[in-house]
Prior knowledge:
Blueprint (H helix, E strand, L loop, with lengths): L3 H15 L5 H9 L20 E4 L2 E3 L2 H13 L5 E5 L5 H9 L2 E6 L2 H13 L5 E5 L12 E6 L8 H5 L1 E12 L3 E9 L2 E10 L11
Parallel strand pairs: 3-4, 3-6, 4-5, 6-7
Antiparallel strand pairs: 1-2, 7-8, 8-9
Helix pairs in contact: 1-2, 3-4
GO molecular function: protein-L-isoaspartate (D-aspartate) O-methyltransferase activity
Enzyme class: transferase
Main location: cytoplasm
Amino acid sequence: MITNYQRSAGSLVKLLAQEGISDEQVLEAMAKTPRHLFIDDVLQHKAYQNTALPIGQGQTISQPYIVALMTQILRQHGVRDKVLEIGTGSGYQSAILAQLFDKVYSVERIKALQWQAKRRLHKLDLYNVTMKHGDGWKGWTSQAPFQGIIVTAAATSVPQQLLEQLDEGGVMIIPIGDAEQKLMLYTRCENEFKQQVIADVRFVPLVPGDII
Ligand code: SAH
């Protein structure tokens, strides 16, 4: 039986394909993941729209196109094994990553969001995401190096500690800026980092300092 959610996810995925997401495995993961489980009841009718939505605590679940794009870029660069996500938020991006990479590590500074995200992932039988309550600017040194790092909040400058946690040939995708932001791609080549602009974007800020 095809449920309403599958129908809505189906039309969202069609739209993503039209917008340029071409990786079949990314599209399949997006089609299979019930985004409505990651947002509040009152916003359910918007769950499969291609927009960011509030998730409480002043944070947002990212726009599906951006989630798909960041995931596709990681895969295009050969990342398959170990990924670090900064900003777990609702856990939606983590759920997509969990289906496409062997091991996902995700750091969130707001404990209440992290707990909720963990419950959602377990409900979907996704157990390959390890979470940490901490400051994402510092990354996760004990688990480094990572083939891929994806930051889902905008940093005012490139966090050097994250670059250092990239494996040789590894890639980091991160929004940089404040009022105006660019989604950037950094590729590690020995101790040099190649940088490339991907798109103009709008993310909540990567907050420095204290965790709550
Ligand atoms: N990937 C998320 C997007 C959440 S929005 C999703 O799919 O829902 C960005 C998240 O980054 C927020 O939850 C915010 O609390 C978190 N964040 C902001 N600054 C942070 C920091 N310094 N360390 C860790 N997480 C941070």
